[in-house]
Structure formats: C-alpha cells, structure tokens
C-alpha cells in the first residue's frame, strides 16, 4: 500500500507542471516563434480592435502567443515569445510564473505587453530578468468588446492585455512573473 505524502504530491505536481510547459512552441527556432507571434497579433487586433490604439501609441510589444499555467496549491506557468519594436522582432523571451495559495486547474492564454514609454522599454531590455510590477496595468478584454477607455488612455508605462483563455483555473494566490531573454 502506497502512502501519499505532501512531498510526493508536490513532486508529482511539479512534474505535471513541467510536462504541461511543452506548450507547442518548443525549441524549433525563431521562425516558429515569429509565426506564432504574427498569428497572435492578427487575432488580437481583429477580435479586439481597441488594442490598435495601444499598438499605435506603444514603442514596443512583448508578445507571448501561448502561456500554459497549472496549479494545485502550488502552481506555475511557462511560455515563449518575441519582443517587437517598430514591427520587427528584436529579441526572444520566455515567461515563467510561480504561484502559491488556494488554487486548482490549468489554462492556456496569450498575452501582449505594450510598452508605452521609451524608458519602460529600455528598462525591460537592459534587465537580466524583468519581473512584472506595480507599474503595469492589466486589461482583460471580454469577447468581442473593446478595451475600456481608462485602459487605452492610461498613463501606465506598461499595459498587459491577456486574451484567448482556454481551460479553468480558480483560486486566490500570491504570484510572481519573470521575463527572461532567451536564444531560441
């Protein structure tokens, strides 16, 4: 008879989270990431036309086409994407997220960080690993609707738009997100 301990459960969840991180982008090189970034931006601008004004006002966008997130008590997320400046890819990044608290479930989503100032973009590019902080505003567009006026006129240096959620994850957690430059 096997006894399920907390340590066994934690290791099992960690293994499941790492397995879930194979989110389809893999290490197939920059061409694959760029193709997914193009498709993600097309979907964003087509389904949420209010984001066009964010694009036009921003100095750069970090596009994460697919982030996979799972949690049961402890959780994590992973995704890969590209930083676009002037419509061209200038670097590739990964995002990792850790969370702890009352949570259960898994989901996948896309997100785009719009850098609204040169200073925020420069700070992001110079950092060895950049953590999302209080200077970022989140926007969650509802199906087919545009972003609220306060989001598109916000003075926040970075605006994150999260969309295309699939799956279900519920709970109350403490979370941390980190973006790191990668070589695909």
How would you sum up this structure in a few lines?
This protein has 184 residues and is α+β, with helices and mostly antiparallel strands.
Spell out the key features of this protein:
alpha+beta; 5 strands; 5 helices; 184 residues; five-stranded mixed β-sheet
Q: How would you portray this structure in words?
A:
The chain has 184 residues and is of the alpha+beta class. It has one domain. 29% of the residues lie in helices and 46% in strands. It has five helices and five strands. Strands 1, 2, 3, 4 and 5 form a five-stranded mixed sheet that branches. The radius of gyration is 17 Å and the shape is globular. The N and C termini lie far apart (45 Å). Residues 7-26 and 144-153 have low confidence and may be disordered.
What is the alpha-carbon Rg in Å?
17 Å
The percent of residues in helical segments reads: 25-40%
Q: Structural class from helices and strands?
A: alpha+beta
Domain tally: 1
Pfam families: Ysc84
Keywords: Signal
Domain Ysc84 actin-binding: 97-179
Organism: Pseudoprimorskyibacter insulae
Could you give the topology of this structure?
Blueprint: H1 6-20, H2 30-47, H3 51-57, E1 60-85, E2 88-115, H4 118-126, E3 130-131, E4 136-139, H5 149-152, E5 158-182
Parallel strand pairs: 4-5
Antiparallel strand pairs: 1-2, 2-5, 3-5
Keywords: Signal
Pfam families: Ysc84
Domain Ysc84 actin-binding: 97-179
């Amino acid at each position: 008879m096997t006894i399920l301990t907390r340590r066994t459960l934690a290791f099992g969840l960690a293994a499941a989270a790492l397995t879930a991180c194979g989110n389809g982008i893999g290490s197939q090189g920059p061409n694959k990431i760029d193709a997914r970034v193009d498709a993600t931006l097309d979907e964003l601008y087509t389904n949420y036309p209010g984001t066009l004004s964010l694009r036009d006002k921003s100095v750069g966008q970090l596009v994460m086409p697919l982030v996979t997130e799972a949690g049961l008590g402890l959780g994590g997320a992973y995704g890969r994407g590209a930083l676009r400046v002037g419509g061209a890819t200038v670097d590739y990044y990964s995002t990792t997220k850790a969370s702890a608290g009352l949570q259960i479930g898994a989901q996948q989503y896309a997100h785009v960080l719009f850098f609204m100032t040169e200073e925020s973009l420069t700070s992001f590019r110079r950092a060895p690993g950049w953590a999302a902080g209080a200077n970022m505003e989140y926007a969650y567009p509802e199906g087919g609707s545009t972003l609220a006026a306060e989001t598109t006129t916000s003075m926040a240096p970075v605006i994150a738009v999260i969309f295309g959620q699939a799956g279900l994850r519920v709970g109350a957690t403490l979370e941390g997100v980190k973006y790191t430059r990668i070589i695909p």
